[in-house]
Amino acid sequence: MRELPRAARLVIVTVVAAALGLSIFAMGHVDQWLPILVFAVLYVLADSLPVGPGTRTAGLTITVTTPVAIAAYIVLGVWGGVLVALASVCDVTRIAPVKRVFNAGQLVLAVAAGGAIYSALGGTSTLEPGDFPKVLLPALVSGVVYAFINSLLVGVVIAIVENASSIRLLRDILLRTLLPGVAYSALGMVLAVLWTQVGPLALAFGLLPLFVARWAMGQFAAEQQAYNATIRTLVQAVETKDAYTRGHSERVARAAVLIGQAVTMSEDRLQALEYAGTLHDVGKLGVPTTVLRKSGKLTKDEFEAIKLHPTRGHDIVRDIRFLDEALAGIYHHHERLDGLGYPSGLKGEDIPEFARVIAVADAFDSMTSTRSYRSARSVEEAIEELLICRGTQFDPHMVDALVLAVGHVGWEPAKPPTAEELSAQLGAPVFDDDDPMIPEPVDEPRFVVGEQAQRPTIGEDAVTS
Amino acid sequence: MTLTAADAVRPGGRVSEPGLAASVLLAVAALLITVISLCSTAIYGVKQPLVALAFGLFIGVGAFLRLRLPGDREVWPVATAGALAYSVLPWFGGISAEHAAYQAVSVTALAMIAGMLPHMVASRLPALDLVARQVLAVAFAAFVFRPSWQFGEARGYPAWELSLIMLGVCVLALLLDAAMASLVRSARTRAPFIRTLGDELTAGLGLNSAVAATAVMISMTSSAMSFWALPVFGLQMVLVQVAFKRYAMIRATYRQTIRALSRVTEVGGYTETGHARRVCDISLAVGREMGMAENDLLNLEYAALMHDIGQLSLDDPIPGGATVVADPYQQRQIADKGADVIVETGVLDEVARIVRHIPDPYRRPQEVADKSIPLASRIIRAVNAFDDLVGGSLEGSRRFEALERLRLGMVYDFDPKVVETLSRIVERNTSFAM
Questions:
Q1: Do residue B210 and residue A208 have CB atoms under 8 angstroms apart?
Q2: A128 and B226 in contact by Cβ < 8 A?
Q3: Where are the domains of chain A?
Q4: Do B268 and A288 touch (CB under 8 A)?
Q5: Which residues in A lie closer than 8 A to residue B221 (C-beta atoms)?
Q6: Which one, out of A113, A402, A420, B349, has a CA that is 20 to 30 A from the CA of B355?
Q7: In the predicted structure, residue A403 carries a pLDDT above the cut 50
């Protein structure tokens, strides 16, 4: 508690004191203790059951105790509800006593406010068939008030501790008040009705679906982690063909996500972008190892073989249905803004956004990594080069986004391969078509005619002209 | 003519869907009950039509919001909960619910068909047995509960006891549904019934307990709240469904990804096109028929798809990728390298163990069969050899030659039980394809 800011301490002490006062007052106003005790025990039990991982992922939070608290003040009246809320101080999962006490305190106040509103608006605790629908409005309003007090008190303390702006605080409170208030009061109401019919069994019935949903969310989160670990590892594993490009896919994914965040993509798209970055070179595995490791210059044919890798990558992963947008990112990641890239020669905005992101991330990691024919460039040099190719090869927005993000959070470039790693492979690739500073091989006569034949090389000449 | 791996394993699929008989049987039974129910309802009239309409709407929307769980199981949790609730409904808004079991079945069947219509227009047909099973399970609940409610036996119980009776009826109905589903699955995959029943019960445990509890809650609370209870539980069940949908999606993605990445060795020229997928499909058929549990089948599937991943560490691809012609030392090296990669993921330890044991003969000279070798490894070992020899060819003679060679290897190399099952599958399917 000592490390908390003064203002936060003040709020906490006030809340706890008010809650204590209310609770002591409540104790004098209840006559039936047994239902309160049963409710309190069930509340604490529900609260103490382990929360699986990931129940808070992607904005879908499932709280099982809020409906119970609302049902408590509907069935037991405001004072009974206050005492149930007070019992939440016995919660065994929250370790920090300050948190636990404050949480029980704000709960007491929220329940008191909700319960008071409920009975003031004419809500009853008998819930006979004749009471419907007229008790529904009090229940809804009281639920919203409950959620408001709850999110206000918690939000204020968090805002003080984290020094958050008042606008964010207001937004958070609104988000947590209206919809959750309505939803939880509806669930609280049916729990209350069930309680008047079957007693404590009601909570067993009522909480089961919520726990099942939470369990499924936990399963989802666990499976997603397993999935991420699996594709990362498998892609790394196949990268072992070449000591120089080890970890390339993972770093490209990281840089792509940095760019995506800087251009404010949604959470779902960032996830897809990460997969696209991880899998963007999966088609290179289809390039024969002999070509990848060939020492000496590549012939035009061999370069054409390498140029097939986005298509091959696309072929491999196209059956993964959910990748969807990421697929286009993989297929087109070697397109250039001026239309001189491959495989489709798309121009400007025609190139899918993911592809434009990955192109920049790919070039950036390639330049900051060691290759057999050159040592790694510094981050500054790589950024300078990106800025030169900005608008011709790369989407200016994406380049700016990367520069901004790298300036903000920094970049840990690839480590050069160790001597053992290099001795493990005989030849090493001399050519890296991800690197914008390397001209593509032209040592054999071309049979390409038309626009393609006059296309400038990607190297220095093109940049300076 | 291009044939997919699935055709090679199950060419009979185009002639007659295996397990169709079981589905048709269920469908006929369901149709019969529905027609009788509709007639009876038409003769005696609809009791409390507004209540019937409300529940019908609930069930219809639920049938529209379908959900596919891992293991290719289509479920309609919202519709099932609504239909069961209507079947065991004691009161509605303080008035005794007087509808007969026939009416409950009629409402369920009509509402489910209405909910399916939009999908049928988009030619996304639900499995035949799904609708049949739902109707039959609901009919069970209705015919058990409604008569005893209508004729007063159940009315004497206190509410909490009544709620437990209702729960019991719902649970039994869901168990019946699981039993019917496993019957169909067992007929379709030729897996032992007891195994598919176990799989069905485990797979449905979480969602079905939510369905049963919700059904009872809808029934009990609408006794007091009349129409107001339905939307609340509808929303709650949708929330539950969303959670399961996300889980099902990531599981599907996982499978698709492993399947896709299994092609890396093909594109790299290490293995023949379609090899990993063929080995996977045939291995799964063998595993199922040998009665492996669903979780073990998933590991078998992943191991079969990734069994050649270790080949990527080879500098020169083996001709045609056929590990059967590689020397034992090289085979072991490929398996070990592959297993090492898979272990790295940190979540597929069992898959890695299976891959590591693929080069192991099922027994060594002068010894009894090695129990430490997973069944999955023994299956992949035999199927891999089979596919290396056949190469996806549908030519009958090549298949029988390959099987003959496996049989010759039964002394040490290949588990006789696996070879026997594999032979059965291959012979069964060639008789259709040839």
A1: yes
A2: no
A3: 6-219, 240-464
A4: yes
A5: 190, 193-194, 197
A6: A420
A7: yes
Summarised one tens digit per residue, pLDDT across range B285-316 is 999 999 999 999 999 999 999 998 888 766 66
Asked whether the predicted pLDDT for residue B187 surpasses 80, the reply is: yes
Tokens of B152: 């007063």
Please indicate, yes or no, whether residues B39 and B154 belong to a single structural domain of this protein: yes
Mean pLDDT rounded to a whole number for chain A: 80
**B231: part of which helix (H) or strand (E)?**
helix B229-261
Nearest to A197 among B220, B235, B344 (CB): B220
Give the CATH fold of the A240-464 domain: Hypothetical protein af1432 (1.10.3210)
- B354/B405 Cα distance (integer angstroms): 23
- B224–A127 CB contact, under 8 Å: yes
- pLDDT single digits (tens) A90-147: 876 656 788 888 888 999 999 999 999 999 998 888 888 888 888 899 999 999 999 9
Report the predicted TM-score, pTM, of the whole model to 2 decimal places.
0.83
Q: Which one, of B376, B373, B379, B368, lies nearest residue B414 by Cα? A: B379
Residue B422 has pLDDT above 70, yes or no: yes
Half-sphere exposure of residue B315: CA atoms within 13 angstroms, side-chain side: 8
Same structural domain for residues B53 and B170?
yes
| Interacting residues of A13 by C-beta distance below 8 A, sequence separation 6+ | none
Domain boundary among B253, B272, B298: B253
Is residue A437 helix, strand or coil? Answer: coil
Respond yes or no on whether the N-terminal peptide bond of residue A343 is cis (omega within 30° of 0): yes
Q: Which fold has domain A6-219?
A: Arp2/3 complex 21 kDa subunit ARPC3 (1.10.1760)
In this prediction the ipTM stands at 0.85
**8 Å CB contact of A132 and B223:** no
> Does B297 lie in the same domain as B165?
no
B77 shares a domain with B144: yes
> Which of B225, B243, B344 is opposite residue A216, by nearest beta carbon?
B243
Domain end marker among B253, B274, B294: B253
- Measured between CA atoms, the residue of chain A closest to residue B203 is A216
Cβ distance B259 to A209 less than 8 Å, yes or no, reads: no
What single-letter DSSP state applies at residue A305? H
What pLDDT does residue B7 have?
41
Alpha carbon of A288: minimum distance to chain B alpha carbons (Å): 6
Does a structural domain hold residue B287?
A: yes
